[in-house]
Amino acid sequence: MKYKTQKVAYWFWALSMLLLTIQLTYGFIMGFARLGYDGLHNVIPFNSAHTVHLNTLVVWLISGFMGAAYYIIPEESETELWKPKLAYAQLIALTLVGVAALAGYHFNIWEGRKFLEIPRELDWLVAIDVILFLVILLMTILKGRKKSTTVWVLFGGLAGAAVLYLPGMISFDSQVLDSFFRWWVVHLWVEGVWELIMGGILAFLLIKLTGVDREVIEKWLYVVIGLTFLSGILGTGHHYYYVGVHKIWLIVGGIFSSLEPLAFLAMTLWALNMYRKGEKKHPNKLAVTWTLAAAIVAFLGAGVLGLAHTLPQTNLYTHGTLVTAMHGHLAFWGAYASIVFAMMTYAMPNLTGRKFYDHARGRMAFWLSNVGIFIMVSAFAAAGVAQAYLERMLGYDFGQVQNKIQIHFWVLILGATILSTGIILFIIDFIKYGLPTDEALES
Ligand code: HEM
Ligand code: HEM
Ligand SMILES: [Fe+2]
């Protein structure tokens, strides 16, 4: 069953694609700056580029999740969205706040706390916007005919993300306290509530794409949530090793964060098993590919590459180096970027009536972007290990080390070019789909 108000999703994804383009552009600015080609320095210094790169990333993913929620929740709850006009207002408000924040970063208006750079005044607008979003979803769920586990998990993840935004809005005089609570947002998002969002979307996609019984699929969802909370909450300790808090965190963080990959492994096994059990009859092959890729690459980027630097003994050397960038890129890509692409690839044919199910451009978009990101991640890995050794063991200065590891940034640019080609193809597809239509949603 399809519902006309699911169209709202399209516009959130359009915003996502726009922000993604900006994110990649600023990535290139940083990559070239690292190579010494920093001609834009007076207009866009490295710190501005970095902030824009990270904030566009977070907002395009959130906009992608919002689109997914506006698509999934009416369908799962078997009802039209509650007050769709408010949903459009919520999108416009989100866009305006985003534009204001991005413009501000070019004029040094920011808070300087990585990922939470948005000025406090704008934080309040973000909070109001998100509350509106949650109210629309909740009213839809409550008036709906059905209340599925998948919907509650998705809603719970989104609501949790809203609540956990608040610790980042408290002001502290102490650097230690500030750092302590910053991780409640950054860590408990990506290694906590966002995993529920991913789990919810994954469950929906597996139900639709494999044809396996909902009961079986949703049972796995409980396992994923259990493992996420069991490991992820105390796993926050892997950011507390050397920030000035009690040393008990060395042990707590080390043990619990080492367990975190299990939640991602469970997602991989879940998706692969459901695929194997399923009838493999769904015509939207590309959506199946993106879905399986999200489940697998999330485990590699978050689980495997997270584990690589999560023990205090290794983190002592790798903290804040390009090893972190290596992990950050593949984790965000595999888990959250890929699940948004999977969701879009599944939903766009249904919204527009155009069935780009398994065509060459879509396949190229998938392969180029994934091969590109793996090349980038390898470059960051090689550069990061060398950097950790030269800086932290041999005591060279940051600038001296940058000269020695420059070659890896050429490889990074190569990978980024391949990745961007893939993304451009994905966006061309998105445009070629055209606008969502009532007829498509009625069929
Ligand atoms: C999809 C899930 C994940 C995403 C998106 C993610 C992303 C990131 C990002 C962006 C950072 C840098 C944060 C900052 O400096 O502000 C980071 C740091 C870190 N991540 Fe993850 N991560 C994920 C899961 C994991 C998991 C499961 C582990 C452990 C097994 C892990 C271990 C670490 C560690 C130890 C650091 C600190 C690095 C440092 O000290 O510089 N991450 N992660
Ligand atoms: C054109 C493609 C891209 C290029 C050239 C690029 C380049 C860069 C560079 C140079 C940095 C700064 C590294 C440092 O100096 O510490 C960075 C940071 C970051 N980028 Fe990208 N990037 C690209 C695409 C992406 C994508 C697609 C994602 C997510 C899916 C992403 C996520 C991140 C994250 C999370 C960080 C912060 C890493 C950390 O915490 O250390 N980037 N990027
Ligand atoms: Fe973490």
Can you walk through the features of this model?
This protein is mainly alpha-helical and 443 residues long. The chain has a domain of 129 residues. Helices cover 77% and strands 0% of the residues. It contains 16 helices and no strands. Helix 2 packs antiparallel against helix 3 and helix 6 runs parallel beside helix 9. The chain is globular. One protoporphyrin IX containing FE binds next to helix 6, helix 10 and helix 12. One protoporphyrin IX containing FE (HEM) binds next to helix 6, helix 10 and helix 12.
**Kindly, what is the distance between the CA atoms of the first and last residues, rounded to a whole number of angstroms?**
9 Å
Give the tally of β-strands: 0
Percent helix among the residues? over 70%
SS-based structural class? mainly alpha
Strand content: under 5%
Q: What small molecules does the structure contain?
A: protoporphyrin IX containing FE, fe (ii) ion
Rounded mean pLDDT is 97
Give the ordered list of helices and strands. HHHHHHHHHHHHHHHH
Show unreliable segments. Answer: none
Short description:
The protein is mainly alpha-helical. It has helices at about 10-35, 45-75, 85-105, 120-145, 150-165, 175-210, 215-235, 250-260, 260-275, 285-305, 310-320, 320-350, 360-395, 400-405, 405-435, 440.
Describe this protein with a few key phrases.
443 residues, 16 helices, binds protoporphyrin IX containing FE, mainly alpha, binds fe (ii) ion
